[in-house]
Amino acid sequence: MSGAPTWRRDTLDALLARFDARVAAAPAAGLPADVAQRSGGDHDYHVIFGCIIHGDEVGSLPAAVAVLEALDQGALRFGGRLSVVLGNRPAALANRRFLEADLNRVFLPDAPDSWEARRAAALIPLLDTADLFLDLHQTIEPTASAFAIFPWSPEGEHWVRALNAAPRWVTRPPGVNFSPGLRCADEHVRLRGASGVTVELGQKGFDPEAAALAERLMREALRIADRLGRGEQTLAEAAEGQPSPIAYEPDSHVAFIDPTMALRPGLQNLAPVRRGELLSAEGSPEIRSPADGALLFPKYPLRDAAGRALGPLPAELVRVVRPLPQGPAAAYAPPK
Ligand SMILES: [Zn+2]
What we know:
By secondary structure, the protein is of the alpha/beta class. The chain has nine helices and eleven strands. It has helices at 9-25, 61-73, 89-93, 115-127, 154-163, 185-191, 208-229, 235-239, 328-332; strands at 35-39, 46-51, 81-86, 132-139, 147-149, 168-170, 195-203, 246-255, 272-273, 293-296, 316-323. Helix 2 crosses helix 7. The N and C termini lie far apart (45 Å). Zinc ion binds next to loops.
């Protein structure tokens, strides 16, 4: 076990300086800020890596910088087009999830004005040219393992397996929105018919394990995209013989309706839970798990001296997902 992930401003500054040097080494006209782009000239397949879409999820940055440096040093080759997007640098510098609005909810034409809505609008023309968008996130609380999180589709499952993206996959039927009325970057890409794959690398922060996983995923994505772009292999062939993650789908959630509601300490993402299991902290109204399954995205907001959660309450205090023992295709694929 490595230690808990860390956040250090000097580490972040050094990585951003290395990223900026890669952008400056090959400036491309017309690109939004904080996008590095390379073109191998062999084929048109366009891979986009998303990093720090949530500002404080910095764990993929070392990998993004390492991959760009390896390409520029000739140690790594990619024949297609690669764009590396740093989603929310101002929030990363502040070690916050976002400044004005959650960037990963505002990829919508009618999002209310905010720094992040303008950032999303600037990135959309680029995302519109993606063949594969690989978005690397980290969770707020610790996680039993890395996990992919996006709705099932045949090509989405092929990507998860071809990349061996993570031991687990929190998925849902095609077309079911995780947060109705809002839109994530990966969702925007899928809506226009390209592949959007999101992976939670682990708990947020700088973490050697997260960096290693992110770099493996980026290198694998480029290797597979090269074969697809050259017509040497289909995505289904790339997935053949690769492991399938343990899949889960949304089951239920605990609505965060009262600021005195508090989860007991130490609840982790994808920890197994039994229906009726006590989840509340001492002094909180009683909270019990609404179902058998596994916990997802437990929230521990800051609280005042009386134990009331500060700020606007998230809609859900914690979610429960249930395993799909036969896998998502068996549950969601239309009958042949
Ligand atoms: Zn995130």
